[in-house]
Amino acid sequence: METSSTQLSGPRELPIVGGHLALDFANTVDDPLGPERHDHAATYDDLLAWSTRVGTISEAQADRLRRSARRRADDAARTVTHAHDLRDTLNELFGRIVESGPGGTQTAKHWARLRPYVTEAMAAATVVENDNGHSSPRPGSPVLRWAWPASDDLAVVLHPVASAAADLLVSDQLHRLSRCARCPWLFLDTSKNHSRRWCDMNDCGKALKIERYVARRAAARRKGANRDGANR
Asked: Which of 3, 102, 139, 186 is most buried by a 10 A CB count?
């Protein structure tokens, strides 16, 4: 069997295109419907790598958690299972809102599934100044934010995601929620006229255009072959 270049080089770096922490976590399965499907949150080390990449935990905290996870393998495995359940919940909750709007009993049903993660997150949260890497907050940004800076609880990797999901559910950004026209990834459409169709123009947008071009070429060849056959 021929080996693809992706198999030889390993999975690509996961694009971060959701525009919101909760949506980016929902999108941690790359190429979910395609031949190069890869779960970037399959292990506890994966969760740490993703969390440090998006900035929800520090490298120093990740090192502590990694050492703790090796000592507490059962707890680490349980956290991964919870991570996958949280991810499924986010996809179902926000996916349904894209399709049917935020109202109705279905939103409440999915919130009931999300609520334990939010409750656990807020029970462990502390409040810190939201400096955004600057000496003072940027204009229009919150003065304070939730944080979990010193936690050695293995589930701390899930707390910022759950908190962000709860915030999004009641925010004025919810009307910008959208789903990629090619893959199931979720994103916030921040374009002026809400016309964004793909999670990433350079990824799914380009791929869809190529697929349509190939389909048109194939249809034209079939049409030409049928015409030639009819003329014989």
From this structure: 186
